[in-house]
Design a protein that fits this description.
Blueprint: H1 2-20, H2 22-25, H3 45-51, H4 53-73, H5 81-96, H6 106-124, E1 137-145, E2 150-156, E3 162-167, E4 170-177, E5 183-189, E6 192-199, E7 202-206, E8 213-217
Antiparallel strand pairs: 1-2, 1-8, 2-3, 3-4, 4-5, 5-6, 6-7, 7-8
Helix pairs in contact: 3-4, 4-5, 4-6
Signal peptide: 1-20
InterPro entries: Lysozyme_Inhibitor_LprI, MliC, MliC_sf
Pfam family, one: MliC
Length: 220
């Protein structure tokens, strides 16, 4: 619990620096294009990722997390089939991005795909979730809510701070919102607004058609 509270305190400090602007947060990382960008078709998802700073950040973060997941499987009894399965899953995910070509909002579709995949890898491979200076994702962090449900949050401290909220059976892409204290994320869905307001180890979760829930980390 002490480590988790420390993590949340650091996250809030980082978030404050991000919201304060480039001067407080430090110089922005250079947008290094992926090697395949030069060969990407004009109207492809790959081209869209190459030309978007926000999507480019997520693509690099996914690459970082995926490599750490692979590294955790190298050597010993864990190599072989598990590693090949992870490679196949990643290839299938990459190919599945093309389904976003049919989406009304391609950017939102691709963003959700990246957030969900990064969160999945971080949860499945502990080594992939280890924090590094060049990483922009944190979590997942589990919040136990007053109705007995579990809200799982993965945070992204990129150019636009985001959070990926998972609460069965739904998942939500949340964007940072102005807040006097704590970290407040929200989204406007077709069914109503979603809001997650985190202050230390406590949070308030509001979902469409439901009363606000009190949630805490560690089940406390």
């Amino acid at each position: 619990m002490i480590r988790l509270l420390s993590f949340l305190a650091v996250w809030l400090a980082v978030l404050g620096a991000v919201l304060a602007g480039p001067t407080a947060a430090g110089p922005a990382r250079a947008a290094t294009p992926a090697p395949e960008c030069s060969a990407a078709a004009p109207d492809s998802i790959a081209r869209q990722v190459c030309e978007s700073a926000a999507l480019g950040e997520l693509d690099r973060e996914l690459g970082r997390v995926y490599r750490r997941a692979l590294d955790s499987l190298r050597g010993g009894n864990a190599a072989g089939a598990p590693m090949e399965l992870l490679k196949a899953e990643q290839l299938g995910w990459r190919r599945g991005l093309d389904s976003c070509l049919k989406a009304a909002d391609r950017t939102a579709c691709v963003t959700v795909a990246y957030l969900a995949r990064i969160a999945e890898l971080r949860a499945a491979y502990p080594a992939a979730g280890a924090e590094t200076k060049d990483g922009i994702s944190i979590g997942p962090v589990d919040f136990h809510c007053s109705d007995g449900s579990l809200a799982r949050l993965t945070f992204f401290r990129g150019t636009t701070p985001l959070a990926w909220l998972q609460r069965a059976p739904d998942s939500y892409l949340l964007e940072i919102r102005l807040s006097g204290s704590g970290a407040r994320y929200g989204a406007d869905t077709g069914k109503g607004p979603v809001e997650f307001w985190n202050k230390g180890d406590a949070a308030t979760l509001t979902l469409p058609g439901e009363k606000p829930l009190d949630c805490r980390t560690g089940g406390g």
